[in-house]
Specification:
By secondary structure, the protein is mostly helical. Helices cover 82% and strands 0% of the residues.
Length: 205
């Protein structure tokens, strides 16, 4: 029974972060930000972006609670704010009005905006902090850690092989995946807000 619950937690972590961080939807943005660069530079940008994102996510998973305590912010408040932000992102995905960030030639786009806030944005940070609260045992920790690692492996694979994937899916396929991701993301956002409201009513906020 314990192994089933652990696998369920791993799956929840992976699916939640996969939808929020959207590896497939990142492909066209990654291609636009690395346009004109050498293949070696593109591969290096993929590694750097994933490393930055992973570092930010892990930092908030371990120290997010202390940061919130120092600022006097409760987790339900951040959870509600994150849910509202996710809802805005989901609406942009559903309506197709998301804007691609532009890159300056003298800026390492792998750090900003790819690593953060494109990958490790508010939604991913809040979701990771919420999921980290469910870690009570070593298997739970392994499940959450494995989910985070698998998502970042997916992100790296998507960016590393972005050109073949884009040729396979074509623009229409990427748009379809973005719409589906928007629908799932909106459901996650509503759930975050609902959980936050329940926490406030229960006196946890």
């Amino acid at each position: 029974m314990s192994s089933v619950l652990t696998f369920s937690l791993l799956t929840e972590v992976f699916v939640t972060l996969f939808v929020i961080m959207d590896p497939v939807g990142t492909i066209p943005l990654f291609l636009s930000l690395t346009r004109g660069r050498s293949p070696a530079s593109v591969r290096r940008a993929a590694w750097q972006a994933v490393t930055v994102s992973f570092s930010v996510i892990v930092a908030f998973a371990f120290f997010g609670q202390q940061i919130l305590h120092y600022l006097g912010i409760s987790l339900p408040a951040l959870q509600c704010a994150g849910g509202l932000l996710l809802l805005l992102v989901a609406l942009e995905l559903l309506t197709g009005k998301e804007e691609a960030p532009t890159a300056a030639s003298d800026v390492n786009v792998a750090l900003v905006p790819l690593g953060t806030p494109l990958l490790a944005g508010p939604g991913a940070i809040v979701a990771t902090m919420v999921l980290s609260r469910r870690v009570d045992t070593v298997p739970d920790f392994v499940a959450v850690a494995a989910g985070v690692v698998l998502v970042h492996v997916s992100l790296w694979l998507a960016m590393r092989f972005s050109l073949p994937i884009l040729r396979l899916l074509r623009d229409g396929g990427v748009v379809l995946v973005s719409r589906i991701s928007g629908l799932l993301l909106s459901a996650i956002a509503v759930q975050l807000v609902a959980d936050a409201v329940r926490a406030f009513i229960g006196g946890e906020g």
